[in-house]
């Protein structure tokens, strides 16, 4: 008998069967709302697949997207892998030359873009070598170019059942954020993404801290805040569909609009990078919806970067339930979640509580994770010994696209090396203390830039901070903090150092961790995904300790 | 990079890592309680695997068990598949000649038996061709034979990590109950069982009616009531371990002991065949624990046979939450569960409520299910058109062991034919109305024996009933009901027919469904798994309409 294939199409068919009536809503800032259902989008995705086929897209072809979190993007998430082609969501915030590099590197055959990016796409076109088909998403606002419009493609397709494909068929590709160097390409099979979806569903349905007990009895709403170009939007479009939740697609991220949606639609769970959470909490319209949001008590899963304690506290005060997720492009993305065991006592003491809350978490099922030394030996689980996180899981990319060298390096010893430096806590949790490439080595010893940043952030005048290692004659490297103050606030280098000295006295950090210099600036350089670009900072300040 | 393998051993390692401290308790009727943990049993299962290896068990060897729901059985569930061998739990209630047939057919190399079955095993030994190793489980009660004792095997083993094995390695085999003919052998790979576990976990953690919302916040207990020789005890030893629940192994099924455990351990979820539920509700000691059980409100998932409405009501009155599961040996077993959609309105009217509650349910994720006519065309979803349930799922056995003919028949057209006859309801649920082999064909039209039984059961004097088709000159077959009355109750053939006529008047069944004869008896013939043996009844009463 033929083996059952783990494919997104099989999941999608199931979702349509069981949850065909459940709402999928597109509620963008511009207000052209679409309230649809899984059943309707199922049919539309079948038409879309057939429409793309008619336009020449064949199994194996790569289809790039440049889009916000729209309902068309949701359809493409199912239609493109479903037809045996490869979905390749592009980060809309990348510089044009990076986009050109990535699209050519990926040999994308089609590019489907939102009208907001029409001018960008016109600029890219002359440089794109493989793209033969452009399709625009006019988003109900009128076409922006002469390329075919996606609704017409849908109309021209027939809702034929998706073809049966093998589970090892590639479903998606994606490129890393390029925080530490040139973006690297990763790819994911249907099998990988189906398993990622199933295990995410177990976690979001059943794990303490992530489950919403009330949501088995009543219909709950999930909002897709993570950009869908960022590692499958962390997989949640698929996960929450499988759980039969209502889903809300808010279009382009707009903090004022988002807080309104949370309040009005009663959004129970969402996820995003720390900056997004910060932007929600400080959105001008937030106070208007504060009461309603408090009543909803939404879970906000922070991932993509560490959750600073200060931000977690601020979020909790505003009625959110902050949670942590950790993952990366290469891992589809989820590796750990900050869930709790049912037996675990959650500490009452504020500091210990937030220590637990903001730790990087526990692996989810099917993730085999270790923190290891250079010899791939597990470091002691003592919360102090530092090592690199290595993993195995069914959803880790098997290789870097077209990069044998980097592949060999990342996979040495049969474990995928994340490049993240962490301590292993006695309870099995990990806590990331740095990226390997950002680690500060002073006199042969490691200093955690993340922990220093976390502490500096507790100073009331500080809005943002990055700590980087700067070359030093005697120690090799010494920490330097680059600080952005809150509007109207003021602080001196000495204020910050004094603030840190309190943590030295309390035994939280050793004295020699104190930065050699505090530099004040008004803006930190960011990467395309909004992460602080420490490469740039290190370059910029490499002379300050000479 | 090597592909991650979906194996029970990988799950087991995860469970140990995350839930090592969670209790697994063995609380048998004889009172030699063992309160252990997943962590401890993990280590013991590694030792057990190594001990078995030392005794000559190699990857691929089949290891049969004859055991109750003991903690050793739990260890064997992990150790035997974990070492690459094949677990083969035997139904302890089968006749000796059936056991001989099955063990020889399966070519079991080892037989691990509970001391209660020592006399049986001594009888079997001379007839077993392949068994080279016998191990006894003395259950803390002293050895019963001279065969090695399992605790010694564990002691002699070292807790070496389980070997890495491929996911397509066979993990278990099992034989069907033999309700409709000779037992047929099915087998399951690590991949099949891992996926069955993950999807069951999604359902038991997140599906309405099955999830226990309070159990994400507090430690809850699951009790393994389904005999572990019956299709992996329905997979729950693995599922609830993955969910990190406390588990209770009650040993041999003893209704008085079970109700005590439910009350004292606060068991939140369990599963079993209808007879087990019935036996709990009528257990002499039940009244003693009635109040406590009401406070716990345990879920009881009934599977293996249809849940009669009367039994569901009785269970609900006693404080249980009755639920339905459907599956079979060939399907690992779960295919459908009687869960509700979050959007679904649960009817208030009693009859419609119990109709919904006792329907066979909705497929769980990754189960592709249809009700089809002879030409493999889906029947209309009208709740009336009758067809056979066919399925595809990753956990359906790929073939019948050593039976090419039956394999071809069951898998014709690429779908596994369950042999179960059902109607498809407009909401996507199925309702089994009969087994294909039990269907009554009168004048070319079908009569549902299950539905007639359900209605006859509502007569206050009736304890048990089986309706079978008996040869009839004019109509081909006509229904005959075989009834067991409650102790002390009385009823005549006319009483029963009159009772049924009320349902004819109410339009629930057509008049021509009324049985031609009601036969009273004191006991119905049962199969080894306690199902009513309609083969025997048909043979016994084949002349009554002549
Ligand atoms: N919860 C978290 N805590 C700390 N760091 C996190 C967390 N989640 C993600 N990260 C960081 O983000 C990284 C993954 O980000 P992503 O895959 O988007 O690209 P990148 O690593 O930033 O870019 P590149 O690999 O191209 O340098 C992780 O390796 C880790 O360093
Ligand atoms: N919820 C349910 N409602 C109705 N029938 C059920 C339900 N669950 C299981 N069954 C019946 O039990 C059967 C599966 O039982 P099992 O695999 O133990 O062996 P069997 O079918 O009784 O024996 P054999 O196949 O040897 O005749 C199903 O095919 C179905 O007929
Ligand atoms: Mg990276
Ligand atoms: Mg059967």
From TrEMBL, chains A, B:
Pfam families, sorted: AMP-binding, AMP-binding_C
All copies of the AMP-binding enzyme C-terminal domain together span 452-531
Tell me a GO biological process for this protein: fatty acid metabolic process
Q: Which GO terms describe its molecular function?
A: ligase activity
Alphabetical list of PROSITE patterns matching this protein: AMP_BINDING (PS00455)
List residues of the AMP-dependent synthetase/ligase domain: 31-401
Q: Which UniProt keywords apply?
A: Fatty acid metabolism, Ligase, Lipid metabolism
Similarity comment: family membership: Belongs to the ATP-dependent AMP-binding enzyme family.
- State what protein this is by name: Medium-chain acyl-CoA ligase
What is the scientific name of the source organism? Pyrobaculum ferrireducens
Q: What is the lineage of its organism?
A: Archaea, Thermoproteota, Thermoprotei, Thermoproteales, Thermoproteaceae
